[in-house]
Every structure is written in structure tokens, then in C-alpha cells.
Write a structure and sequence with these properties.
Bound molecules: adenosine-5'-diphosphate, magnesium ion
Radius of gyration: 27 Å
Structural class: alpha+beta
Amino acid sequence: MSIAVGKVVAGYGNMITASFDTNVRQNEVAYVITREGRLKCEVIRVRENVCYMQVFEDTRGVKVGDQVEFTSGLLAAELGPGLLGRIYDGLQNPLPDLAKQCGLFLKRGVYLESLNRKVTWEFTPVAKVGDEVEAGDVLGTVPEGIFTHKIFVPFSFIGRAKVKSLAGKGRYTVEQVIARVEDGTGKVHDLTMRQEWPIKIALRQYEERLLPVEPLVSGCRIIDTFYPVAKGGTACIPGPFGSGKTVLQQLISRYADVDIIIVAACGERAGEVVETLRDFPHLIDPYTGKTLMERTIIICNTSSMPVAAREASIYTAVTLGEYYRQMGLGVLILADSTSRWAQALREMSGRLEEIPGEEAFPAYLQSRIADFYERAGLVRLKDGSTGSVSVIGTVSPAGGNFEEPVTQGTLAVVGAFLGLTWARSNARRFPAIDPLISWSKYREQMRTTLDKMDPSWVQKIKGAQQLIHNGNEIKKRMDVVGEEGTSLGDFILYLKMEFLDAVYLQQNAFDPVDAYNTMERQIYVFSKVDQVLRKEIHVKDKDDARNVFFQLNALFRNWNSSQWESEDFKRFEQQINSFLES
Ligand code: ADP
Ligand code: MG
């Protein structure tokens, strides 16, 4: 087979223009051949006999006249057993292996296999010889960590085929043929445990999309109780620099009740990413007691890596997520930060000399953001089971201005908006999710499920939210007229709002107990908080009121850091009860 070739005719930053004589298609992968090595690119625009390519590497030293090879394949992810626990760059190169090969400074043009070719997996056949199969049907399974990894007929397989032979139970590498199938034309295909799927195309091998109605419990009270995210839903965490987006995402990645976590560390400073890489492998999974890394995949592109690979990393992450969803698992994708990804789009759009939209972002920014979040979802698979991909992305608007295009484009498509503000992070009220601007559409959508947990749940939350608004109004007024100008009744309302904030909305990430709350605990604790909020407080003056709430705050905080149902937990609860009965 002859491959299409071309020549570099111009270059501009990490965009290269090449001429060619044969056919080249949009989004196909090409390589620029330089003396130092082959640089991977993606065709992003084709005009007659020239194409524009974004290069995933530093383009230093590329010369006019350098040869270009077109692969005819789209930018794809490699899928198969052995993805869990890995750390990849945006193009799915295993980073630790790259480091082993290249040392501390990664070399250009080195691409390694995403799946290990030598490791063998214990294969158990599920299909039988003679079965009629099609794309997405299960041929067999292998155990991968605590999961049963399904081996599928490749998702790109066209039409129906008959299984001619199937490997018996035994150990195989991802490259050994485990099945031979014959298609309608009589052609025989060799199938292995690995397959590829183009990362920019959503994987749609399911029966139907379902409305997400189950909560994704993050362990973070303000999220789960006030602004819940559904399994299969989407949320964004916008916040200015330093407001706690990364810390919050790390907390969620540790505690969320999902099967698989995919962290896409996208374009943030290297130091922060290194922190993630260093900490993660040592974290213990609260659900399985094993290391968290066993059910995690990290895709990482720091701000010092080429921007085009940053763009790819988001799609690689979501493709791997969709793959595990096909197995009936719940996957959570955490993208930090989607602003850096949007900046990569902007940079490329500028080089293509497209007509810029607001703040020089391309006009299609909103639709790209929507396309990405739409890949989340709860689906019913062919075998009747369900799987989900949930996506939580951070947005880092410059100066915390939420009016900018990436934040606006994101909030138009997500189901929950967890806005962090400096007002809260500067006051050290962590997590700095601001109850005055955050919202979630899932509370209504999950109503039936929530009502089953506690029939008065939604009503209680609405009451508390009302109190937060009223309490803040009083606070604003009090800032002007002072405490003397505020009635005792209003002052107590204000103290109740502060109490709710201090003992429930805020959560200490560094306290081993407080850091994570089960839904059961949240429901239990919130009903007590609710009783305090609704209780009539009899005090003679403001000092007296302040005292009462000072003690209540301390009591609830102690309760929060006591192990669920421990002696301490019961003791503090008794004290709370005797206050409520007083
Ligand atoms: P961002 O990603 O928004 O720039 P980070 O997540 O890196 O911000 O957080 C910045 C700093 O804020 C952290 O280094 C930490 O000191 C503080 N911080 C953030 N979240 C918390 C938290 N939940 N508890 C305590 N401190 C926090
Ligand atoms: Mg950050």
C-alpha cells in the first residue's frame, strides 16, 4: 500500500501548511519527517491541494520542503485491557515510559504504545463459534483490577459477521488474535483485544440515552445537598485563580462514588500536575481499600507542553470514559481546566486566520464546548445494563469574570454550576462554592430518587436556600447601618445563616472525617441543622444570641469531625438534642 505524501510549504508556530497531490481528509493524522524524528500532526483544514495541520510537538527546525506522510487514519485512542492505572499525555503516550526512555526532558517525535504489548490477560470467551455478531458485541472478558473488562467486536466494525473461531480460556496479549470473524462478503477478519476509536467522534454503541436520576455522591456536603450532580450528568466549576478548583476536583476524584475516574489535567502549571501525579498513587480508595490509582487514568498536559496536544487530551479522556461506560460502569471525567483547552482552540483559530468571535475565541467555541459535554450521559446498553459518563470541568476565567465566553458557553450546556468566588476563598470558607451564584438542574430531575431518601429533603433544602438569601440581605444592610440598626429578629436570622454556612456549607478537607460525608450522614446531619434553623431562639439581646450560636457552631463542628456512629458522635448528638428540646 502506498501512503500519501506531501511537502511542507509554510509554517506558523505549531501550524504547518503542506502541499499534496493525492487525497487528504479533514482530521487525518500526518507526520512531518524531520532529521530529528517524525512529528505527529492533525489535518485541520484542506484547501485544494494544500492542507493546514496542527503539530502536536515543538516545530523548531522544520523546514520548507520537509516530507509529510499522511496516514489516512483519524486521531484515535487505543482501547483494551490495561488502561487503568496509567498516566498518559494528550496523545495517549504513557508518560512514565517516555520518561524512562528520554530522561527528564521529553524528546520530540517519540511515540510509545498506549497498551502494553507484553502483558498477558486471562481471557474467558463469552461468544460462541457460529454466533452472528456486530460492532460492540461482547466476545469475551478479562479481569482488570476489580472490574470485568469486556472484549468487544471493534466499534468501527461495519455490518454483521459470523464467528469462525474463538480463543479458548487462557492468557493472551492484546495483540494476539482471539477471534476470527467472517463478514457478509466472505472476508475474514482477525480480531484482537485491542482496538482503536477516533477520539473526536462520540461512541454510540448503546440502545438509548436515559435521563440521569441517580445522584453522584461526591462526599462534599454543599454539592450533594445543595447543588447535586447526577450520574451521567455534567457540571462546571468556574473560579478565579487560587479559589480552590484543583483542590476541589482532587477531593471529588478521591471520594466520588463511581467505578472509574479519569483525570484530564489540561494545561495547568506543571507544578500542580506534578502534585497530582505524586499524590495520587499513594491515595487509598475509600470504597475498595486498595490504591485509588487502580481505578484511575490520568491524562496530563501541562502548560509547558504544546497546545495542540492539550486540545487532544480532553477528547482522549472522554473516549476512554465512553469505552468503560460500554462495560456497564460508572465513569467520572474531571477536566482541569477547560479554559486552557479553549485557549488552544483560540490559538489555532488565530493561525488559521478565522474571523474571531468574542475575546478572539473562534465563533464555534460554544458548539465545541457543547459537543464535549454532550458526550457525558447515562445510557442503556445492548445487554440491558446501564453505564454512565459524568463530566465535571473547571473553568478559569481571568480575574474571575464569569461573563467571558468560556464560562458563558459552558454554563449554557451543563446541568450544574458550582461557582467559586474570591469572596469565599479569601474568607477561607472552603470549599469556596458560592451559594449565591451556584445552581443545579438535577435536584428537580432527581426528585423521585431524593424523595425516597427523605420525603422532606427538597423542601428542607429550599428553606435553607431561602435563609441564605435572606440572611445575606440582612448582612448587606447591617454592613451599612451597623448592628444597632438591626432588629434582634433579623440578627438571629443572620446568625442562623452564618451557622448553616459554618457547620454545613464549609467542610474541612484536611480533617479525615469531615473531608468526606456519605449521603446517609448528610441526610442525618442536615435534618438536625434544619431543626436548628427552624427553632425559635429565645434570647434577651444580641450578645446572648451570639453566645448561643457560638456554642452551637462549636458543637456541630465537633460533631462533623466525629466518626459516624462513634461514642463521640453520639455524645455530641445528645448535646444537640438537649439544645433542641430546651
Ligand atoms: P485553583 O485551582 O482554583 O487555582 P487551588 O485548587 O490550587 O486553586 O487552591 C489554591 C489554594 O487554596 C490551595 O493551595 C489551598 O491553600 C487553598 N484551598 C483550596 N481549597 C481548599 C480547601 N477545600 N480547604 C483548605 N484550603 C483550600
Ligand atoms: Mg488549579
